[in-house]
Amino acid sequence: MLRAPLGVVTGGPGTGKTTTTRRALDELDARGETYLLAAPTGKAARRMEEATGRESQTIHRLLKWGLGIGPSKFFYGEDEPLEADVVIVDEASMIDTKLADPLFAAVQHPTRLILVGDAAQLPSVGAGMVFGDLIRSTRVEVARLTTLHRAAAESWVCSQAPRVLRGEVPDLRGRADFRWHEAEVRDHAVDAVVELAAGDLGGLGVAPEDAQVLVPQNVGPAGADLINRRLQARLNPMRAGLKAWTVGKGEGARELRVGDRVIQTRNDYPRGVMNGEIGVVARADDELVVRFEELVTYDRGGATALRLAYALTVHKYQGSEVPWAVVLCHSTHTQMLTRRLFYTAITRAKRGVVLVGDRAGIERAVKNQSDGKRNTGLIERLDELWSENEGDEEERADDHAA
To answer: C-alpha distances in angstroms, 167 versus 15, 81, 316, 346?
Structure first.
């Protein structure tokens, strides 16, 4: 893979993607080759940095977004390629066509590109299916990690995620790292999620800050918006002396209180905080201050990008990890329940999963593959490009023979 001009490493949880990446970097260090590490989101970039012990950054920062001239605003691109022997991008399944375009333009021969990710996860929120298309094209080098290593085999997530991908209902028997709370009635399922997340996950001794509620959608009577308001009322109720800001207008207005868990929902380069980063409100007076890795100050306009993060959609949390995931999977979510979404939700957990819902919802999720196809045209365009290159090579060979 280290020799490939463009290569892909893909595998599920417990198959060794992180270990493989570290080993590759050790090999590059031994060779004296230079490399750059990146990921689509700030949280994924920090996780890559923690896992490898090397500096990582978002793709936008890597390409210096905002410093370029032209529609894309990226400094690095076709006319200003990146300077490194190898570029390695983690969580590459999240890369959409709009971001892949400047990234691929900035990686030019002799620089090599390695994309690492889990092809079974949800595709990018934006247009395209770049990671999956590259794998299916057979035009790039692909390393598939399929062996579940011994330590991972003891994990409910690592042992059951392959079953989900095969369309099978996972083992719902309780164990040290898994609990199943069945609730046929939708409102009872929501009540259970709130009680579990506001406590210690039903006797597991897990602090609320070590758990993340994940749901299929934002709106509706079992959506993240409603659960966020209920968890805010339980974990951080309004009381005398507590400072708060009202952000947004009309139906979208929300109150952010000191102590609330919040998420940044768009890249904010002047403030240095990226889409998907989660923090805690530290101050709410003349300015709103949020503690991420560092304190970030917001005015009224900038604060509209903040939302409560006690509960998040699976799409929003893709690329992140949490010690414990509280996953709501109920048949009321109908078409939002898909195999990829369910797989992505449970694989966000590093230690364990608390699953809440009904069996009909789980069965619907593991059987529904409706989100697995997008009409992108990328594979056909790659085939055309390879055919053109092969024709050029034949012409050069004929000229050389003549």
So the answer is: 20, 43, 24, 14
